[in-house]
Amino acid sequence: MQHLTPQGQQIVDDIARRHGFSQDAVTHMLVAVLNGNGGMAQFSHPEFGGSGQWMQGGMLMLGDMFNSSLKGRVDALCYELSNLLANQPGLLQSGSFQSQSQGGGSFQNQTSGGFRGESDLFVPDPADHWWPQELGVPNATGTQNNVKYAYFAEARRLAVNTGGDVWVYDTLDHQIGGFSQQQGMGGSISFGSQYGTIDLGRLPVVSRNGQSVEAPPPPAYAPDRSMLNQPAPNPHANEGDIFAAIERLGDLRAKGILTDDEFNAKKAELLARL
Hints:
Elements: H1 6-19, H2 23-35, E1 40-45, E2 50-55, E3 59-62, H3 68-86, E4 96-97, E5 107-109, E6 140-144, E7 147-152, E8 157-162, E9 165-170, E10 178-181, E11 189-193, E12 196-199, E13 205-208, E14 211-212, H4 239-254, H5 260-271
Antiparallel strand pairs: 1-2, 2-3, 4-5, 5-6, 6-7, 7-8, 8-9, 9-13, 10-11, 11-12, 13-14
């Protein structure tokens, strides 16, 4: 349930006075327009002729369908409330990040770029701000089943609330555009980025319930760097052997076992044998 701030109540009082409706009626319509994301409203109030529907663009239906004067007043009220909400930060959804699979959830943009502050109209609901406060205002939020998501693009963080536990992930250089969740108990979570569909478990965990999570220890074994010390194929080796060796070196570089300089030096040595 939405509760008005003192400033929001003053705004509603002024609108009610100018349009000739009660404060209760205007508050009812304000919430209805908000629930319609600023572009439509389904309402039911005696001052508006009972049940009705308004849609931006000229469509208005009232229970008192032949009352042209009331229609004009309600239409004017809805347009003013729509413009009011559009100028309030974070209230209207300006777009959505699409889900990655059937049954997946979708992110809802809270801003059209950058972070935006709280609305002056409504008292924030603590339940809607479950992520760590230091992360600020998310660029997008979403929910599916019992999982909630909040994405902070500038901070490169993704907060995930699963059953009351809040996990914060480092998103690295991913530009997250949505998520999907496999059905069933313990279903895995993945997200979409410019690199395709990625399993959430591949992101480093920063914290859980406000407590820092240490990075996993390095592997107990030493990486196999023996390929660097192996002699290059003899001059009579076929091209397939050389290219296969280069491919193996590339795999070692991708895994972080070889540096770029080590890879390039060995590659040049191999190519010189062609």
